[in-house]
Amino acid sequence: MAKQSTQTLTLLNQLAADEVEAAMQALAKAMQQLEQAQQQQAMLAQYQQEYEQQWQQVLQNGLKADLYRNFQGFFSQLELAVSTQNAQIEQCQAIVQQQRLHLQEKQRKQKSYEVLITRAETMQAKAENKRDQKMMDEFASRARRARW
């Protein structure tokens, strides 16, 4: 019975290990998406800075009203894209944090199975030692009786 219990715990531990692996992959994917979002945000910020510099040069030379409106419209769209990307980064960061917590939960679960397996194996070894000792005592007792 104890051996079956250990086998069951070993199977549960393997399933938990598979869950840990899946959680690690999900975390890696979430971190990759966060990194991509941050790279996109950096590119947008750089583009926005370059556009502002161009804007300043155009302003120094003077510009027509329709060109001014075009610059302003595009700059507004660029600011919206940057703020949207910042929101995307925040969402990705939340997902990464959620995946980390999920991974930690799965690791705790696996660790608890490992502890239970160790405990069961220790109890099984003690029971076997006790059985062996009992058999040795019985053999010794029989040997003494046989000598008398």
Structure description:
This protein has 148 residues and is mostly helical. Helices cover 97% and strands 0% of the residues. The model has no long low-confidence stretch (mean pLDDT 91).
Distance between the termini: 40 Å
Helix amount: over 70%
* Strand percentage: under 5%
Q: What is the number of helices?
A: 2
Order of helices and strands: HH
What's the main sheet like?
A: none
Low-confidence stretches: none
Q: What shape does the CA trace take?
A: rod-shaped
Secondary structure tally: strands: 0
- How large is the radius of gyration? 34 Å
Mean pLDDT: 91
Going by helix content, strand content and strand pairing, the class is mainly alpha
Per-chain topology:
Layout: H1 2-61, H2 65-147
Helix pairs in contact: 1-2
In short:
With 148 residues, the protein is mostly helical.
Index terms:
mainly alpha; 97% helix
